[in-house]
Amino acid sequence: MNKEDKKANDSNSPSGVGGMEYDFRRIEKDWQKKWKETNAYKVFNPGPGEGLNKPKFYVLDMFPYPSGAGLHVGHPLGYIASDIYSRYKRLKGFNVLHPMGFDSFGLPAEQYALDTGQHPAETTKKNIATFKSQLDNIGFCYDWSREVQTSDPNYYKWTQWIFLQLFNSYFCNTEKKAKPITELIKKYETKGAVPKSGPFIPGKHFTADQWKAFSEKEQADILMKRRLAFCGYGEVNWCEALGTVLANDEVVNGVSERGGHPVVKKTLRQWYLRITAYADRLLDGLNSVDFSDAMKEMQSNWIGKSSGAEIDFAVKGFLETKLRVYTTRPDTIFGVDFMVIAPELDLVNEIKSAEQTPAVDEYLAYVKSRSERERMAEKRISGVFTGAYAVNPLSGREIPIWISEYVLAGYGTGAIMAVPCGDERDLKFATHFNIPVTNIIGSHFNGEEANPTKDAILENSGFLDGLVMKEAMEVAIKALEDNGIGIRKVNYKMRDAAFSRQRYWGEPFPITWKDGIAYPLDESELPLTLPEVKSYSPGPDGEGPLANIPDWVNQFGSEIPPSGSQAKRREGTKFGGALETNTMPGYAGSSWYFLRYMDPENKETFCDRKVSDYWNQVDLYIGGTEHAVGHLLYSRMWTKVLYDLNLIGFDEPFKRLVNQGMITGCISVYLYFGKLTGFKRKSKTVLYFERRRV
């Protein structure tokens, strides 16, 4: 071997250039041991009445599901970046909070346990140990003393506690914030629910004396309609293979995101979070956070705020039946050529003609197997005529009523007025089914392409003729309101979030039911822990597996409603009611975990206010875009509720969000910290991952 070959061999050997051996296995293990023994990465909170001289900085990764055999390559993609940045901020003199934990409750963990024939508690424990070992081997600078696991009773005690705050709060439409439900009860007792203006509507409004005369069940039903965490019957995404309800963001192209199983619509009793009450604040909050434009757009589109009017159309031959539609373009009302209603509406079976019944029933069977996402994304035109006609309230014109899968019961009123000359989908529908098209925009419509313009001068539009469409909107709304056939309306595409799952591996609800009334457990009863079971197969009639364990369900007795008094329990008085058998979804624990990291050992509260005031918002949050309309929206809502109730001092959880992207092949990773680190590689401060195939 010549000198050049020997030199090259040395450079590529474990010994390196010059033959000096770098025994990375021994050296790195030694240093990792030293770091652990000396608590090198331990982070301290300010003491009582004290502050820290160092400024704080909170760097957070979206914590993983411990649902597989270990980390996959996508985890370190973000974790390495946050680790580098955390070390950099420490060197710059910051007190850096950089914790790690595990999103260990929910469907992924339970499904992994089912797939491997084990109990989720055991698989979760093993997987977490593997994850931690792998993370330590990489050498991340986590303060493991702050670790949280959402399936730990010491953690989910506070998830249940926060749920009770949601259950015991309502959204005040005047102050636009959450307030204790006790304040609403006091208002009902003294003032009732009387409209400030407009008619008194029986069933909706009541006096203080009427409220006092209501039965306990009647009062409970009224309050349930105002609670931030509420229970009701609704159409949900049901996955038979998984035996549970799935949120909209857990369904992709008609199948479950986890496992790819078919999903159908089913009506069940469910818990919900009233996230729609926070729609405006969730939109406004996007102006105060440093999220990418793409992320903000995804959240804005999911919320889907629009302004327009609700209009009542009479149905020919049905004197008491009204077809209510929501439209953002009331100026086009004279251009309505047909109506389309959602297949799920009860109205379909009420108005379908005898001649059209077979075709309607066949179409309904087809739609029932389709998810909302499939229906919204469908390019193929489908629908069926009901045989019924609506009557235009301003022109008296009879309009055919169709049903089609592209109209969803959950958005607006579940019905639309179709104006083919101004809407491309309506025009394609009209063309496909040979429905005549009315032109109300003159030369702006060429007969082949719809034109959604707002600048045309209206034609064939009765009293709106000659008006520019922008001006006609207000004129049309005023005419609708003056004639009592419509009202101005703001609408949202976002629905209230389904908050219960028919699974075992999740937080039990601290709720008992007696005579149809939901009673919250007293805080002293928390945590309400899961029972130890050998089998966790689905319960009867779509209930969760907990319904199969009567001793657990009836542990509080059934003689009287729960008093919530620990003293009475000691005296032998039994609590009443059967426990809720559904469990909370996986996103329950992840909606607030960033707060528990701040104060993980606190046994008195979920997070001391002084501590949360110090750490405040997460300064840098790193995770995937797949959580845009799930976890990120839910955690933003929970933060706003806790802020409204004066439990924390900020109403947005994450100051800055960075999405690390997805690995699509072999990668080269470049970290650009720009101005923040003094590295003048880019003209502006950025932190991102560049990927390329090699």
CATH architecture annotation name of one domain: Alpha-Beta Complex
Helix content: 25-40%
Would you tell me the structural class of the helices and strands? Answer: alpha+beta
Strand count, sense and barrel status of the largest sheet are: 7 strands, mixed
Q: What oligomeric state do these chains adopt? A: single chain
Q: Whole-number average pLDDT?
A: 86
CATH fold descriptor of one domain? Isoleucyl-tRNA Synthetase, domain 2
Integer-rounded radius of gyration: 30 Å
Strand content: 15-25%
Based on DSSP secondary structure assignment, what is the total number of beta strands? 22
Low-confidence stretches: 5-13, 559-574, 666-694
Cα distance spanning the termini = 34 Å
Tally of DSSP helical segments: 23
